[in-house]
Amino acid sequence: MLTNKVFIKKTKMGGVMKIVREHYLRDDINCGSQACTHNCDSDGKEPLEEIPISDSKLVMKPHYLVPDTNVVLHQIDILEDPSIKNVIILQIVLDEIRHRSAPIYKRVKDILASSHKHFYTYCNEFNMHTYAERQPGESANDRNDRAIRKAVAWYADHLKDTEIEVVLITNDAGNRKQSVLDGLKAYTIHEYVRSLSNMSLIDRLANPLNQMNQDNNGKVLFAEHLGLAEIQKGIRAGRFLQGTLLISRENYLEAFVSVKDQEKMIFVQGLQNLNRAVNDDNVALEMLPDSEWSCPSSMVLAEDEGKDEEDEENRALNETVVDNKVPKELRQPTARIVGIIKRNWRQYCGILQPSIIKERTRHLFIPAEKRIPKIRIETRQAQTLASKRIIVAIDSWPRNSRYPLGHFVRCLGEIGDKDTENEVLLLEHDVPHQNFSEAVLSFLPKMPWTITEDDVKRRRDLRHLDICSVDPPGCTDIDDALHCRELDNGNYEVGVHIADVSHFIRPGNALDQEAANRGTTVYLTDKRIDMVPDLLSSNLCSLRSKVYRFAFSVLWEITPTADIVKTDFTKSIIDSKASLTYAEAQLKIDDPNAHDNLTKSLRGLNKLAKILKKKRLDNGALSLASTEVRFYVDSETNDPIDVKTKELMDTNSMVEEFMLLANISVAEKILYEFPDNALLRRHPAPPPSNFDPLIKAAQSKGFTIDVSSGKALADSLDQAVVPENPYFNTMLRIMTTRCMMQAVYFSSGMLQPQDYLHYGLATPIYTHFTSPIRRYSDIIAHRLLAVCIGADASYPELLDKSKIQSLCNNLNFRHKMAQYAGRASVNLHTHLFFKKRIQDEEGHVLFVRKNALQVLIPKYGLEGTVFLNDDGQKSSSIFVYDEENNTQTAGDVTIHVFDPLIVQLSIDRSNVQHMKLSLKLVKPMIPGFSVQSVREVQANATGSQSKTSTTDLPISGKPPQKKKKRTH
Amino acid sequence: MSVDIRLASSRPAGTDLYHGENPGNIVTPGDVITADSGFMRGHGTYMEDECLHASVAGTVERVNKLISVRPLKTRYNGEIGDVVIGRIRELAQKRWKVETHSRMDSVLMLSSVNLPGGELRRRSEEDEKMMRHYLKEGDLISAEVQNVMSDGCLSLHTRSLKYGKLGQGCLVCISPSLVLRRKTHFHNLPIGASIILGNNGFIWISPTVQDKSEESGGYETNLQPIPKLDREVIARLRNCVLALAECKMLLFDTCILYAYEASLKYAVKDLLKPEVAVEVVDLVRQRLELEGS
Amino acid sequence: MAGMELLSDQGFRMDGRKPNELRRIRFKKGVFRQADGSAYLEQGNTKVLAAVYGPHEIRGSRGKALHDKLLINCQYSMATFSTQDRKRRPRGDRKAQEMTSHLKQTFDAVVLTELYPKVQLDIFVEVLQSDGGNYCASVNAATLALMDAGIPMKDYVIACSGSHMRDTPIVDMNHLEESSGGAEVIMAILPRCDQIVFLEMNSRLHEDHLSGVMDHVMVGCKDIFNILNQQVQDELCQKTELDKIVTTG
């Protein structure tokens, strides 16, 4: 079993340290091949097929591939292709990838985990036959290459009795040559891929550096990057600084670098000084002398789109802004980039730049993200890809190239197609949305799933209670249900039952890790990106009616005046009697003839909820407004045909009230038991200066808003009502929302108790407990609570406050991104909705800006900007901005905040990648600025066309996704 | 002068006689010797859960109902009548404390030594003051175990002419278990040297003294230089004893003599080389086997 | 996660062992001629010398003597060259003192001390090279040294360490694994009567995993015991063969 041969690995670190580590070599490592004729002790793990099929014309026999490190690192897109199978990833390769690139390592691991890819990790370093000891004078790389060859040779020998050949894939010429000398088969990835019948793979090959070098005549455009050793030396000596590069959104030639432990950002300007750094890279900086310091120019500068690329090539790097006539006092610390510490390249969405010569294979790619430079790629499918959105990865950026070099990864679909655009926005918001990997799915319970005796013993049986769930229509991931019954002593027993997701997702497994990474379910207007696989989210965890489900219940005894007498937490089994929609529940409550238990229960809940809400508001909780839109979707095309704001009913607030109560009760419990590592949610009080625009706006209508406390704010908001403008109050509340801080998750040990406050809810402590299906934070809260009541075991990560905090950081990021993605999705649908129409709508001025008006359109819950000076004509505007009173005046028309307007909505298609909703002023009429209303235009146009009527039928094509807005 | 320098190497292990089968009487601490309650508990054993367990690693020995385990190596466990060699460590009230490689210092009472001037002399206070004059710290003596006290402490006596203070010679310390119990432990070897095989593992090698003067009572040391030839014999004997002990051979006069004879073809100092030592011991072993069969 | 992967997906540890595999163990008894018993033991790259003197008369003040049992005196020290960074370790630094008292406790429990009242036994342990599991190697070496000295003991005392990584218990940790920050359970047991004489845990380990880790460490101890006992018996047999020749001779 154990060859028991000790070797000594020596590594020198810091000059004198000699590290001696044992390294056991074994003879029991299995080859992973089903074709193996030796008795490899496989313990059932033989992913490599017995007869690997491949259509390569280069290697006719069945074969396994062994890629070297660089091939895996650069050509992971190829390896991920389903047509590449039966690949042996050597341990040495895997180790090196882990050190060099975490994302690629994760992708490789995913491939290894999927059973249909037939990838296998061979532990060559631990096998006595394939271990290669580093020889004197041999570099680490040479040794690794030799080790790889040795492993390939071993495989070749091991499988010599079978038909199977083993092929080394390496782009290193020396390695290839040596392998051929050793009698092994070795090809470059390019040779191999070209020999396959699947031609589309060729485009996805990353470009080897040397090819590009040849045709640019070695004209060097950029300064050389310094080596890592030199950078580190420089950083230690204080000559260099290290930081993350953030390219300006307005001007691609300007960037800021946030340097560690330094408040002030450092400015970098010009292509030369940026020196091939891409947004998000970790870079080393050298400060420029004071005389060369500069400041951001106010110019908006985007890379020109239409220019022919040859042109651009020739146009050297003159673009750099050299006119250093910046006044001294405006100058900011400016630096130039001398080296890259770590690239943070990812894959970018975008489109191909139209090329004049169609047959060319070299093309420029324009990323959707403005901060990313154009990327040069090579593809033969330019014609087909011209109208598509594609994904491209950067491979390198040589010194003699104006643009980074990359390769085509995949095509998302037609520009303007909804699915494509959805995918783009998911990618751009970094929302993990791939299908769940096999490793993740393997941790799902096996179907059919049944409740065992043991489960029943460990849980309180609440199946006899009249529990029901109340949700938006079409909701499939039901994570909460309620009940209420009168007790003998006149009090009420109220139960909130939350799906017991933590029962199915055990800490630390792949499923858990995936959920923790996703952090939240993302709701797009027409699509839901689940945090947990569908089996859980829509079935086992979803508290559907008429099935037994596991729940985590919070049971209160509440007096008729809504004081809590007793709180109890328990894991339970429930049997929901009905899944109601808000409207259905409302109907039941309002129906005077209904006297069944369920209705009674609902009425009780409703009654208590009202008292609770009143108490909460009296406490100073804010009731804020935000607009939410709902799209009515055509069942066939899935295109939106109408858009409405959502309406709220009593039952919405009833459910919400009890969820808040449950969250607060749980927060108190887990904080009491885990003062150091409870996952809580806080909403910091905003600094008073945040309210300035609100106060100013209210003043213009003669109201004073008191922001001294949450309570005062809530009261003054309540009083600010203008009878003739019913929307005024809502607008004020929308504005208040804008003043707020972001609510965030945190670990209780990281902050002082007074900072736990949730400002919006006016509660000293809060957490998220009630939606574990769609939020990972709730799963953690469940686990903590389960430990508190002894229903489940804790695990080390759960008790580590810093681990919880880093989890919180990820959750906060994901939540933010999910919100952005959601908004972007709404925008997208708005665009689709207005693609075919131009419409006049009533709106209100929300903000008056220097060059624009921000207008809210209540009908659609939309917000848009009316630009007062058209960028096309640089002529000075006819509007005069009065900063004092916050008004814009043109002639005799003065526009104030909250003024009603009529605007025309249409889509601005000037930019393919970034369509914009454009608003034009219709009323009040300002000559030379306002446009005619649609009606008038139509009237003028002979009137022959019948007015395009919009069907108001709420045809719900797909069930609209549940989206509860509880962003407290 | 030539110096012998050797590098680290595995030592020759001697002939491997053991072929893997446990002869059955080998036990290690914790082993159950017997679950039979009819036996008596001897040295190296303890009772637990009605079973007799071994407490040391060694061979099980059974004398009638008494079971004991003899370890390979141990401190000296004295028995009455044993010949021991010891070193004076300390003087106390009417007694000397003697280091005999036992677990406690042995006691030599002033009353159990022969003093000059007759055996039946009364011990006066004068004698007590003179104790250091007779034997002082560091002196070596040969003695016999007179009694074993309850706590394991040995009381010695030297009331025979053959015991007493030792003069010029050479002391070798080996494991007590390597000394074979014999009728006599004093040997005048025919090669011009005497040897005392102390039961406590101390072995005394000295030139054979022809006439023992009685007047001094054995407390005067003869400081005449020993001829070189005699010294060489003593040195050779010492190295032979060490070699035998190194190879875990039981020591008695014949085997020492055989070793001496077998070693004659080597220089004295060469006997310290492990391979030479092993060869010599092998020869001894073969010769013993030959005679035994 | 950054840095090293202590247990790979393929189930191998950094040095190529599986979770339940021990490092190589080699030892030699009776390395000193002067001491009553001594042993040199290697567990992987952890190398330890142990020497036992006694039982002998109490040295130093006689007041230390125990009237009803043996006094065990331990001394643990580490050679200056035993760790990666060479540093002078004044004897009796805090770590060594702690280890010394641990060793004393361990052997007090197993040596049949009541047999030797009023005397003293010295156990000296010196770590020559440290690569994790210093306590374990020290205990195992001292056990062998005690046996070599013929000191009566209830049983072998065997120590082994273990931890929990990626839901798998691992045994016999090397320095790299010890310094990774995870929990470490150290146990000394009497392998034949399944008694635990010493248990130490560093850092936090979840309660649920404890018994699993302990079971594996227990098995590890027994594996070590089998290795040691086999060789001890072989040596004993060899010696008795020699004796036979003599006695027949």
UniProtKB/TrEMBL annotation, chain A:
Any one GO BP annotation for this protein: rRNA processing
Q: Name one GO cellular component term.
A: nuclear exosome (RNase complex)
Where do the PIN domain residues begin and end?
Answer: 63-177
Query: Which keywords appear in this protein's UniProt record, sorted alphabetically?
Result: Cytoplasm, Endonuclease, Exonuclease, Exosome, Hydrolase, Nuclease, Nucleus, RNA-binding, rRNA processing
Fetch the CDD domains from UniProt: PIN_Rrp44-like
Which domain of life, per UniProt?
A: Eukaryota
Compositional bias of kind Polar residues:
940-953
Domain RNB: start-end pairs: 459-791
Where in or outside the cell it occurs: the entry states: Cytoplasm; Nucleus, Nucleolus
Q: Which GO terms describe its molecular function?
A: 3'-5'-RNA exonuclease activity; endonuclease activity; RNA binding
- According to the record, the residues making up region (Disordered) are 940-968
Q: Which SUPFAM superfamilies match?
A: Nucleic acid-binding proteins, PIN domain-like
Pfam families named in the record:
OB_Dis3, PIN_4, RNB, Rrp44_CSD1, Rrp44_S1
Which co-factors does it depend on? Mg(2+)
| Family according to the record | Belongs to the RNR ribonuclease family.
Protein's recorded name: Protein DIS3 homolog
State the organism of origin: Elysia crispata
UniProtKB/TrEMBL annotation, chain B:
Q: What is its main location?
A: cytoplasm
Q: Where is this region: Disordered?
A: 1-22
Output the Gene Ontology cellular-component terms.
Answer: cytoplasmic exosome (RNase complex); nuclear exosome (RNase complex); nucleolus
Keywords, A to Z?
Cytoplasm, Exosome, Nucleus, Phosphoprotein, RNA-binding, rRNA processing
The record's section on CDD domains has:
KH-I_Rrp4_eukar (cd22525), S1_Rrp4 (cd05789)
Which Pfam families has this protein been placed in? ECR1_N (PF14382), KH_6 (PF15985), S1_RRP4 (PF21266)
Location of the protein in the cell: Cytoplasm; Nucleus, Nucleolus
Biological process (GO) annotations held by this record are: CUT catabolic process; exonucleolytic trimming to generate mature 3'-end of 5.8S rRNA from tricistronic rRNA transcript (SSU-rRNA, 5.8S rRNA, LSU-rRNA); nuclear polyadenylation-dependent rRNA catabolic process; poly(A)-dependent snoRNA 3'-end processing; TRAMP-dependent tRNA surveillance pathway; U4 snRNA 3'-end processing
Name the domain of life this protein comes from: Eukaryota
Q: Report the residue ranges that make up the RRP4 S1 domain in this protein.
A: 75-147
Question: In this entry, which stretches build a coiled coil?
Answer: none
The chain positions of domain Exosome complex component N-terminal read 26-63
Query: Could you tell me which residue ranges the K Homology domain spans?
Result: 169-209
MF term (GO), any = RNA binding
Task: State the oligomer form and interacting partners.
Answer: Component of the RNA exosome core complex (Exo-9), composed of EXOSC1, EXOSC2, EXOSC3, EXOSC4, EXOSC5, EXOSC6, EXOSC7, EXOSC8 and EXOSC9; within the complex interacts with EXOSC4 and EXOSC7. The catalytically inactive RNA exosome core complex (Exo-9) associates with the catalytic subunit EXOSC10/RRP6. Exo-9 may associate with DIS3 to form the nucleolar exosome complex, or DIS3L to form the cytoplasmic exosome complex. Exo-9 is formed by a hexameric base ring consisting of the heterodimers EXOSC4-EXOSC9, EXOSC5-EXOSC8 and EXOSC6-EXOSC7, and a cap ring consisting of EXOSC1, EXOSC2 and EXOSC3.
Give the family per the record: Belongs to the RRP4 family.
Q: What is this protein called?
A: Exosome complex component RRP4
TrEMBL record, chain C:
| Location (main, coarse) | cytoplasm
**Keywords noted in UniProt:** Cytoplasm, Exosome
Per the database record, which ranges form the Exoribonuclease phosphorolytic domain? 21-152
Query: Which protein family is it in?
Result: Belongs to the RNase PH family.
This chain's protein is named Putative exosome complex component RRP41
Subcellular location(s) of the protein = Cytoplasm; Nucleus, Nucleolus
InterPro entries to which the protein is assigned, alphabetical: ExoRNase_PH_dom1, ExoRNase_PH_dom2_sf, PNPase/RNase_PH_dom_sf, Ribosomal_Su5_D2-typ_SF, RNase_PH
Question: Quick check: keyword Cytoplasm in the entry?
Answer: yes
Name a GO molecular-function annotation.
RNA binding
- What is a single Pfam family found in this protein's UniProt entry? RNase_PH
Q: Taxonomically, which superkingdom?
A: Eukaryota
Q: What GO terms fall under cellular component here?
A: cytoplasmic exosome (RNase complex); nuclear exosome (RNase complex); nucleolus
The record describes its quaternary structure and partners as: Component of the RNA exosome complex.
Q: Which biological process, per GO, is one annotated for this protein?
A: nuclear mRNA surveillance
The role this protein plays is: Non-catalytic component of the RNA exosome complex which has 3'->5' exoribonuclease activity and participates in a multitude of cellular RNA processing and degradation events.
Xref: Gene3D superfamilies: GHMP Kinase, N-terminal domain
